[in-house]
Amino acid sequence: MNEPEKNPWRRKSRRLAYENPWIQLYHDEVVRPDGEPGIYGVVHFRHRAIGVVPLDTERDRVLLVGQYRYTLDRYSWEVPEGGGRFDESPEEAARRELAEETGYASGTWRELCRCDLSNSVTDETVVLFVATDLVAGTATPEGTEKIEMRWVAFDDAMAMIARGEITDAMTIIALQALALERAAE
Fold it and tell me: What's this model's pTM, rounded to 2 decimal places?
């Protein structure tokens, strides 16, 4: 592999344009890679994104959660996901999110992959897990969440992606990463 290139961007100034407990929006004055002046908007996430594929290995099915997504103005089927503080381990955050959204606990955890979600405008990173040996409990969703749960055969979940019924990036990445693992076995 070639050596990574040096950063061709140069930041001249940064101004905080907006913030709330979850994000900060920066307006940067920059010198672009072509040497011309420009601007760049950067959404900084104050938490790491976390996602969990709850997998029932005996029946080869996944637990999806459904909720209305305000930003999209539509309903979305997804794996349980949320935010984890940077001072909290990704697995601790995943355990918490799974319990909050579904009530389930897991005896076996495995990190599936890490990725950047929309690196042209955000610095949001995600850590995705697979949780097996599931034990049911009582969900305690946040006040912003009205969640439904649905067990779906793994192949049916993949078909939902193909039909455009699952559009959430974290869910697609997690399920496809798991499918790639299975194909390599």
Answer: 0.92
